[in-house]
């Protein structure tokens, strides 16, 4: 085993607008649950343009970038934090190749999608990006909510 595969990690998984609209959220959650990963947080929200641009900033010079931003902001997304041993790389395997026609059967994209520009789900490509993506979405406002709750209890 590779050493990094033995570490408990967190990754960010996001069901993209097409996946939410097509009613695939349950299937996608179920695959991660059945694999044995732990759901640590979940939020449904409409991704603001600024956050989409931050999320895909490495791709901003690509020809498809404007379409990508339009797609990802076109409807609600379901963003999740998943925990487990080697979950960052494993989630990418469960999700499958970027182009769904090249994704293996048994993967989410291989089973559920056809087009690269409608590929249903995102998974972080590194633990650092996972932490950053989770902080900006699933856990955004988490500390403030905790403080507000403490204030309420004290009153
Ligand atoms: P993601 O970040 O969404 O999990 O996808 P990925 O790692 O498999 O692929 P990435 O290279 O990060 O690309 C991000 C998303 O951009 C769209 N894309 N379109 N040639 C194209 O038209 C093209 N290439 C990439 C896809 O929606 C891809 O998931
Ligand atoms: Mg990517």
UniProtKB/TrEMBL annotation:
| Active-site residues per Swiss-Prot or TrEMBL entry | 122 (pros-phosphohistidine intermediate)
Q: Membrane-spanning residues where?
A: none
Residue sites binding ATP per the record: 16, 64, 92, 98, 109, 119
User: What residues does the Nucleoside diphosphate kinase-like domain cover?
Assistant: 8-139
Could you name the domain of life of the organism this protein comes from? Eukaryota
User: What family does the Swiss-Prot or TrEMBL record give for this protein?
Assistant: Belongs to the NDK family.
**What is the name attached to this protein's record?**
Nucleoside diphosphate kinase
Which species is this record about? Dendrobium thyrsiflorum
